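Forwarding these from the shared drive since the link keeps breaking.
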Amino acid sequence: MQETSKAHTFHCHAFYWSLASFSLGIATQQISFFLFFIAQGLLAARYGWPMGGVVQSGYRAAGSLFAWIVVSALVAQVRHPDLPAADFHWAFIAMWVVSTVLVSRISWVDLHRWLLVLSVPGLIRSILWLLQPDEIRHAMDIGFSMYPRAFGLVSNAITNAEGLVVLAGWSIARYTEKLSVRERRLILLHIAVSVLIVALSRVRSGILGFSVLFFLAALFSNRLRRVGIIALIGTLIAAGASIAFFGFNMASIEERLDLIQSSLQLWRMYPMLGIGPDRWEAVPLGEDILVGHPHNTVLAIMVESGLIGLGFYLAFVVALLRRYFWLFKNRRRLERAPEWVVKALCFALVSYLVFGLFDFNFGDSELLLLHALHWGLATKLWQVAQTPEGLVSEPEDG
């Protein structure tokens, strides 16, 4: 019995680290994920823990999408064997890693604390990056439009911003719980620093992400209304001041429009099957044509996997939305998770959809790992809730 308890504790802490390691950079994140994946498999074999399957209810749409991504990669490789080897979005497998045993034993408070603590080194590096004396002097000489954008320990500023919005979603969802004064202040400080980093880095999608998050918090929670409104106003003021001081980078907008045009050219070459995952620069279009993925997830999926892949992706998103809506509607009755956890997961999904309008976040391994683990948590919670013991009785009013 004691051995099993220790195994459960190790299992949960390994997952906390795996999910929170996003903030420590892609190398640490991927190593942590694969170590957790192997450890969970060994624990499942040792103690007979069920792992779940691809064809189970809740995973079929995701499984169909994943299968088509692999098919499109193989087709692309056969079509152009002379080009670099085709890739596929392997990080999507993280959705299947979350097990029933994990969800039944997880401490959601500990998970949130791990997420915040492991993000601190990235926050510190972002602050130091923005305060570099040489960069400030250089910006003063040539114009502050060239002031550096902070990215913490992850790959770029946009990825960093999306991660910070996801963490803020967890924090603001838990803010309604009974917290010590110290922890409440630390949560607010973490959110405030995150907003300032994104605003000073002029990440437009990050500013929008925080704004949407705070707006939804104020809209759907009476207890968060005051905090949400203040946070929303503060975000808009910080963003407005940053844009007014640094200026608005129209060149990046023009570049994105060019990438959309070149992506549509690629799609017209292979409209049904797509060019294959991550082949944006491999398929030639011309010397003077800017190549690269468009900063839009839906368009990028369509170009990579064709109209067939787009259909599978939209079916997957609709399945997720239905699942999350069910969880939100029944959030007060879940046996395995408190209400605030469902809100945090919903905030994370909204963040993914909002950032997907301005970036190909499904094709980013860092972000796909982060979000797929969230999708796995939500799917497993939904799956467990379908069992007779998965829901508690409806609480009485008042």
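-- next protein --
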Amino acid sequence: MRAGILMKVSIFKIAACAAVALTASVASAGDDVLYWMVDSGATITTDSESNPQTTATISEFFANIGDYFPDISTGEGSAFAARVRVTGGNITEDTFLDLYIPGSGVDVGGGAYGVEFDTVGGYWGAGVPTGNQSPSGDYSAGTPEYSFIVELGNIDSSDKWTTVATSAAKAYSDLGDYIHQTFDINPGQIAVWTPAQFTAVPEPSGGLLTLMGVALLALRRKRLVEVA
């Protein structure tokens, strides 16, 4: 499954700067599209028991990911990527914005795998330099209002996603400058949401893991007593 997604993302990277021929299968007039990307200028702040608060560029953070997430595999078949999580409204399960692949249409469900970090035209990031295009019209209204969070993560060879850092949540109403109708044939001329600051997902500390273990053991004993 992931091979096909990676192929589509590769097509996207090659064609990102070219004009896109719109078809009826891509989107109907009036659909909102969020333009977003993560570039090399963004930083990640970490704060954990083993790594006191520090700030590093994304590339530095990825290069030393083992210091923060020892269980993450960065071997062959793994990659770092970015995706947009949607929260608020009536959402009760993991929801991510889909991705538009120029020349291929909307990759429904592909947003969960995100866009891989790579170098394109001398720029490094996810969706650089013109931005990713994600249909967002389904989340233009809601009570409470929908919000968007850019997540950075690692995908291993078995397609397992591990979130390593997140941006601050932005309400739909705050992203008006980056939301446009339909898919733009000249994306290089519009504003792109480019979060500049991320916070590393905290790793469980030894003390926290101990407390969790004690709590689970107490719960198990309570259930055994009730059964007896």
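Confidence is low (pLDDT under 50) at residues 3-30, 204-227. The chain has four helices and 16 strands.

- D.
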